[in-house]
Amino acid sequence: MSKNETKAQGRSTKATGQTPADEVKTALADFVSDIKEFQDDISTKLQQQEERLTMLDRKSLNPAARPALSAAADIEAPHQKAFEAYLRSGDDDALRGLDLEGKAMSSAVAADGGYLVDPQTADTIKNVLEGASSIRAIANVVNVEATSYDVLIDLSDLGSGWASETGSTTETGTPTIERITIPLHELSALPKASQRLLDDSAFDIDTWLAGRIADRFARAEAAAFINGDGTDKPTGILTHPTLANDSWTWGNIGYVATGTSGDFDATNPADAIVDLVYSLGAEYRANGAFVMNSKTAGAVRKLKDLDGRFLWSDGLAAGEPARLMGYPVVIAEDMPDIGADAMSIAFGDFAAGYTVAERPDTRILRDPFSAKPHVLFYATKRVGGDVSDFAAIKLLKFGLS
């Protein structure tokens, strides 16, 4: 040790009255004391947090103390798990005995067999149907619990006028009510999967099944809403009788002719589209939309007005429909191609002109026997559709008159 270090150590010892070894012991004791105090503080906070969690758990066991959304989620989760077990293995004990907070779910068993799908699967099917290229996307869709739905239309022009304070008023006419009954029909789909696939826990059975059912429902609906004959299926817009718009009467769908068989007019082809738009009453035109298939759309989008501007314009953003003369275009592949006397384009206020009535529930019946080694899933729901206002829809006929 150098002389300087010896002198410094001596000064430190004289100032504190402790040797260097004593100072180290004191510092170490202070450090250990601080650590213990920190640990005690952490333990106290953890205990308080545990007490709070325990109180929350007790509250969650009380249905009345839970928020409505939380309670709804609790109800849906067991239904989903029980339904998935039924799909994978055919075990329906959980579905039959499901009782959630006093609400028995035994009603999930339909009288004719099958079980109501869980809410998540039902929402997936609904979203696909609403997004499909179909009349449903622009029609009036109502949920009913009955086997049919009635639409009442007032066809009368009730008396009205100005009245003075002392003058007499004329009696209004008796209203004429038209009743349109839309029966509901059973729509079905029959997807299948192998039992080996169903046994794979990584296979998302709910999403797969919902997609298959929705796809087949959408195809069947789209065809029926256009061409359905009303026998065990909805009645399509093209099934009703048609009449030239100049002599249109209720019960028929009015049409405008292009003046050329199987084509637009060679000189002024765009005139037919303009005539079709203005054949519709002003009260319907504000909510108007075109319906045609892809092949017809390919021909229509080439049309120009007298100033050389295209009548067709594509959507400005992703997901927006194309527009024709400013009105949205719905592509429905079941509409007929352009041909002699074909009614290939429809224009109207379909929210007023066509009504889709449906029961909100979808049922599934598992069948592991009919197509071994595959398992069939017989899915059904009840849907109806028909024209509900014959004045709200007009057709373009590719014919001479």
What would your notes on this structure say?
- This protein is an alpha+beta fold and 401 residues long.
- The protein has a domain at 113-156 and 174-401: 2-Layer Sandwich (Major capsid protein gp5 fold).
- It is built from eleven helices and 19 strands.
- The strands form four sheets. It has an eight-stranded mixed beta sheet. Strands 3, 4, 7, 8, 16, 17 and 18 form a seven-stranded mixed beta sheet that branches.
- Helix 5 runs parallel beside helix 7.
- Residues 7-13, 68-75 and 99-111 have low confidence and may be disordered.
Concise structural overview:
With 401 residues, this protein is of the alpha+beta class. The protein contains 11 helices and 19 strands.
SSE string: HHHHEEEHEEEEEHHEEHHEHEEEEHEEEE
Number of strands: 19
Tell me the name of the CATH class of the domain at 113-156 and 174-401: Alpha Beta
What integer is the average pLDDT? 81
Cα separation of the termini? 122 Å
Tags for this entry?
eight-stranded mixed beta sheet, alpha+beta, elongated, 401 residues, Major capsid protein gp5 fold, seven-stranded mixed beta sheet
List the helices and strands and how they pair.
Elements: H1 3-16, H2 20-60, H3 68-89, H4 93-96, E1 99-100, E2 103-104, E3 115-116, H5 119-131, E4 140-143, E5 148-154, E6 177-183, E7 185-189, E8 192-194, H6 195-199, H7 205-227, E9 242-244, E10 253-257, H8 271-279, H9 282-285, E11 289-292, H10 294-300, E12 312-313, E13 323-324, E14 327-331, E15 342-348, H11 350-353, E16 354-358, E17 363-367, E18 374-387, E19 393-398
Parallel strand pairs: 4-16, 9-10, 10-19, 11-14
Antiparallel strand pairs: 1-2, 3-17, 5-6, 7-18, 8-18, 11-15, 12-13, 13-14, 15-19, 16-18, 17-18
